[in-house]
Amino acid sequence: MSNLTIDFERAKEIVSKFPEKNILVIGDLILDKYLWGEVERISPEAPVPIVDIKEEILKLGGACNVAWNISKLDGKVYIAGVIGNDENGRILKDMLEEHNIKPLIIVDETRPTIEKTRVLAVSQQLLRIDREKRENINKDIIQNIISNINSIIDGIDGIIISDYGKGVITKEIIDYVISTGKPVFVDPKPENFHLYKDITIMTPNRKEAYKCVKKDRDYPLENVGFEIMEKLNMKQLLITLGAEGMALFENDKVIRIPAKARKVFDVTGAGDTVISVLTLSKVSGGSWLESAILSNLAGGYVVGEIGTVAITRDKLLSLV
Question: Is 55 a member of any domain?
C-alpha cells in the first residue's frame, strides 16, 4: 500500500473475510418512503407545485440502512432498536427479515415507528415529511434492549451505534456496549457527543465534527479532530469531508485521504455506507488506514447514485 491506495490483493484478503463477521447495529430504526412523481401545474390554492405521484418506494432508513449495508456486503448482522405498534413497524420488521437482518427489536407502545417521507419530482427532492417522537426511550425499554443484546453479544465482532438523535441511544446503552469490550464504531449526533466517551472510533462529517466541539469553520480541522479525541478518550477518529475525501486521525497523526473523483448526486446514506465498510474492514484484519481507504471508495460510489443504495463486495473490489 502506498500513496494512500490499497493493493488489490490486500483488499481482496480483507473483503474475503466479511462473510465470517457478526456485526451488531444499535440505533434509530427508520422507514424511508419515497414518493416519485411529475410536476406539471402549480396549485391554485397556494404557490406550490402539484406532484402527480407515479410510484411509491419503501426503503430501510436510519440504523436499518446501516444494517442493510452490512448485509449487502455479506456480513452477518443483528439490529437492536424500537418500533411502534403500527403498520410501519410491521413493514419494517418484514423488510429487515427479507434482507437477512436479525432483529432484536422492542415494540414501544408510546411512540410511532419513525417514518421519513420524501417527495421527489424530476430527480429533485421537493419536500420531506417526518413522523416521529424524539424523547429518550424509557428505562424498561432500555433494559429490554440490553437483555436482547446480551443474549447474542458473545458472538459479535463489532458494534455500530447509528445515532439519529431519535431517543434510542442513551447513556445506559452506550455504557453497556463499552462494558462488553467489543470495538464500538459510532456515527454520531453532535447533541449526544457527551455520551460517546471511551468508544473505539467515531465517523462524523465535517459539520458534525465542528458542532461537537462548538467551533467555527475557520478553526483548523486538525485541532477539531484532536480536541474530539481528547474529550472522548479515543485513539482514532475519521472525519468525512464530502468532495474532499476524509481525514483519519490515529494517535497523534492525521492522514488526508482524497475522494475519488465522481459526480455527487445524492449524499443520502453515504455515512451509513462509510461506517459499514470501515467496521467490516477493521474487524476483518484491516489497519485503520486500509479500512478508511476502503470506506472512502465505498462512500464515493454511493454519492453517485440517487437515494440510499448499498454496495456489494464485488463492487467494492472493482473500485480498488
Answer: no
Whether residue 5 contacts residue 257, with contact meaning beta carbons closer than 8 Å, is answered with no
Question: 166 is in which domain, residue-wise?
Answer: 8-31+61-114+133-319
Q: Are 24 and 80 spatial neighbours (Cβ–Cβ below 8 Å)?
A: yes
Q: Is residue 293 part of a domain?
A: yes
CATH number at residue 92: 3.40.1190.20
Q: What is the pLDDT of residues 91-113, one digit of tens each?
A: 999 999 999 999 999 999 999 99
Q: Respond yes or no: is residue 130 known to be catalytic.
A: no
Of the pLDDT bands very low, low, confident and very high (cuts 50, 70, 90), residue 195 is very high
Give me the residues paired with residue 101 across strands: 77
The pLDDT tens digits of the residues spanning 221-277 come to 999 999 999 999 999 999 999 888 999 999 999 999 998 756 666 666 788 999 999
Q: Choose, from 130, 154, 272, 314, the residue flagged as catalytic.
A: 272
**Beta-carbon count within 10 A of 180 CB:** 15
